[in-house]
Protein: RecF/RecN/SMC family protein
Amino acid sequence: MPANPGELSRLEIKLDISMQLRESRQILEAKEAAHQKDSAELKSARHELRRRNLEFRSAFELAGSPRDAKLAELNNRIGQIGQEITYLGSIRELAERVAKLIAERDAANNEVDRLTTVITRLSSVTSGRISQAMSMVSTRAKSLLKQDLKRQEEFADPGMVTVDFADDAVLVDGKMNFAESSNVVLKNAAILALLGAAAEDKKFWHPRLVLMDNVEDKGMEQKRSHNFQNIIVNLSQQAQLTHQIIFTTSMPNPDLDMKKFAIGPHYTERNRTLNFGT
Structure:
């Protein structure tokens, strides 16, 4: 401890001065840091001022005045906006065209789907109807062939008569080559079968009119021709719907030679179809 009060007083003064010096140094350090910060901000502000001053001078020198510079800037911006509007307008038109085409495509696809469904349904119905119609024709053709005289073995009890429109052929159980006179009977039987089906079924869309020229062609015997003429008349009398059958023959069946069936005169060697007055 100090020996006397005077020495104690000096120590207190020294301690107080030390504390003041430490506080002063801290204050100086804080002020130095603030000064450095302010100096940096000032330097940055001066740099920004010079940059803006250069921009201003550049704009002023080109435009002639600050007002002109501002107008030039605005006009430039207006031009940019105009270009953007034009571009966006073209994009909008393109989008509208694409949307319209998509709508048209969807409508076309829907129509295709609808028509495909209709075609499929009609094809199914038509296929069934054609099969039914040709079955009717085959049944009637078989019945007509069975009524023929026993001149062709295959006609006695045929299993299937097929009319092939594509090849213009008539087949009996898959065969189509017979005697010439039998081929005539087969062809005429198929024609009559079509008429018979049409005269029985209102939905059978086939002309109910038949015209056959010379039913006994290809050397057919008279008895067979007379029999086939009876077959024609019997089919006509059994038909339910209005129809007409016209056929010519050089061997008229005497049993049918009446006004009810026959029309016109008989043509002979002396009474020919073409009479020039000689």
In short: The chain has a mean pLDDT of 82. Residues 66-146 form the longest helix (81 residues). The domain at 133-256 is CATH 3.40.50.300 (Rossmann fold). The helical segments are 5-63, 66-146, 153-156, 180-200, 222-238.
